[in-house]
Design goal:
Belongs to the bacterial solute-binding protein 9 family. This protein is an alpha/beta fold. It is built from ten helices and eight strands. The chain has two domains: 144 residues, Nitrogenase molybdenum iron protein domain (Rossmann fold), CATH 3.40.50; 125 residues, Rossmann fold. The strands form three sheets. Strands 2-1-3-4 form a four-stranded parallel β-sheet, covered by helices on one side. The chain has a two-stranded parallel ribbon with strand order 5-6. The chain has a two-stranded parallel ribbon with strand order 7-8. The chain starts with a helix and ends with a helix.
């Protein structure tokens, strides 16, 4: 009888423990991967972090579930990309947060100079991302000042890595006299190209993906690739490169070899990259290596 009672109590306690674990709310909620990445690295094991946009999903069209809204309300800190990117906030973050939740519009961390703030994809500029890391560090310390030194050390380690790679890339492009690459995607790399003095010819001038493309636009990019005599065409992350493959097939019929390379816009990552804890730094390194390959280095 005692053995049965012991087993019963053990099962009840296990169920309660599992339930509590499942219902534990994240301390910090982020809408997109760039700020999630910085937050996860800075907070370490001191605070839990949740990413609203699931790995592999399109960030532009994201809308939260009612469960996610509840998660935001119960969080200590809510990080959103901008009112333009997170249109579901309806220009008023207070509508979905509690009085106890600190909110940070991450775009507010970027100075309104050289039109960088007006770029929907401001996070693609490494100089801007460095400011994002610094701003998130300060905000995390605001909600948990007792671990200030821990957060500062983590942030400084990451900032040093980013700055070192950023300097290497800047110095590389200084030797290239503003080179041009061709991008079969939407206009998502303005801050990136401006920072590195790189000319990115995009298929679509719109700042959002899935825009209706005309045959004329596709033909124009194809002819520009041929005229430049480049054999590399860049594609977006997380999207099937249908247009790029069409251009590649058309050129193949003319015995013109074209290779596809990814130019990552940092919107989101694949599930494999997420599970492997791939960082903004890692994606920047990928972009750098792919661009070097396209430029013959």
């Amino acid at each position: 009888m005692k053995k049965i009672l012991f087993i019963t109590i053990t099962l009840i306690l296990s169920i309660v423990l599992i339930s509590c674990t499942k219902n534990k709310n994240a301390d910090i909620v982020a809408t997109m991967y760039p700020q999630y990445d910085a937050t996860r690295i800075i907070s370490g094991d001191k605070l839990s972090v949740s990413l609203l946009t699931k790995p592999g999903d399109e960030a532009h069209d994201f809308k939260p579930t009612s469960k996610q809204i509840t998660e935001i309300k119960k969080s200590k800190l809510f990080l959103f990309t901008s009112y333009e990117m997170d249109a579901w906030l309806n220009n008023n973050v207070k509508n979905i947060t509690s009085n106890e939740t600190i909110t940070l519009n991450v775009s507010s961390l970027i100075a309104k100079s050289n039109n960088t703030h007006e770029d929907l994809h401001y996070w693609s500029g490494t100089n801007n991302y460095i400011k994002i890391v610094q701003g998130i560090r300060d905000t995390i310390i605001e909600i948990d000042p007792s671990n200030k030194e821990f957060y500062e050390n983590n942030a400084n380690t990451y900032l040093n890595k980013l700055t070192e790679l950023d300097t290497i890339i800047i110095n590389y492009f200084k030797t290239k006299n503003k080179p041009t690459i061709y991008f079969a995607g939407h206009n998502a790399m303005q801050s990136f190209s401006s920072h590195y003095d790189l000319n990115v010819i995009a298929l679509s001038a719109t700042s959002k993906p899935d825009a209706d493309l005309s045959a004329s636009q596709i033909s124009t990019l194809l002819n520009e690739v041929k005229t430049a005599n480049t054999h590399y065409l860049f594609t977006e992350e997380l999207k099937e490169p249908r247009v790029a493959k069409t251009i590649m097939r058309e050129l193949s019929n003319e015995n013109y070899e074209l290779n596809l390379l990814e130019l990552h816009g940092y919107h989101n990552v694949t599930l494999d990259d997420f599970n492997n804890k791939v960082t903004y730094y890692d994606l920047l390194e990928r972009n750098y290596q792919n661009i070097k390959r396209a430029l013959g280095d």
